[in-house]
Write a structure and sequence with these properties.
- The chain has six helices and six strands; from the N terminus they run H-E-H-E-H-E-H-E-H-E-E-H.
- The protein is of the alpha/beta class and 162 residues long.
- It has one domain: Glutaredoxin (3-Layer(aba) Sandwich), CATH 3.40.30.10.
- Strands 1-4-3-2-5-6 form a six-stranded mixed sheet.
- Strand 5 and strand 6 form a beta hairpin.
- The longest helix is centred in the middle third of the chain and has 17 residues.
- The protein starts with a helix and ends with a helix.
């Protein structure tokens, strides 16, 4: 019985130490996403644009989760993963979040028809390719990364702007 209790406590301790993943995804348009970023106020916000069908996006996500876990308790840090999957694929995105154990907040940007309007508002040189990561401090863009980021690049950019 004593061994059973020890094993049970170990299992409970392990599962409670695991980061929470979302069970649902909020779909929003560009203006709502912009408001969501601004809502973070004085924080340094990492906004990563990705898709479940983008190989470089999927490849870099584990490093993003490592950095998110490292800084998530810092009150000046927030990471938002913006899925560019289609709104009709929302369930696929939710399953992907669970499968890949994505612990950062995931938002589904349901505004594909207006891409040519909102893409240049994030950065005038962004041509629409993904992955793309935009870093904000106090609501202002401080860094734009076009393409896949290594863990070191991501961490250094976060540290530099915290």
């Amino acid at each position: 019985m004593k061994n059973f209790l020890v094993i049970l406590l170990l299992i409970l301790g392990y599962s409670s130490s695991q980061a929470q993943v979302q069970n649902d995804v909020t779909a929003m348009n560009y203006e709502e996403l912009e408001q969501r970023i601004q809502k973070e106020g004085g924080k340094m916000v990492v906004v990563n644009f990705w898709s479940t069908t983008c190989a470089p996006c999927v490849r870099e996500l584990p490093d993003f989760m490592i950095i998110n876990e490292k800084f998530k308790n810092n009150p000046q840090f927030k990471m938002i993963l913006v899925s560019l999957d289609r709104a009709k694929d929302k369930e696929k995105v939710i399953q992907f979040i669970k499968k890949k154990n994505l612990t950062a907040e995931v938002i589904l940007l349901d505004d594909i028809k207006r891409m040519n309007t909102w893409i240049p508002r994030f950065d005038k040189n962004w041509e629409g390719n993904i992955p793309v990561t935009v870093f904000y401090k106090n609501g202002e863009k401080v860094h734009f990364n076009d393409g896949e980021m290594s863990k070191e690049e991501l961490e250094n950019t976060v540290i530099k702007n915290l």
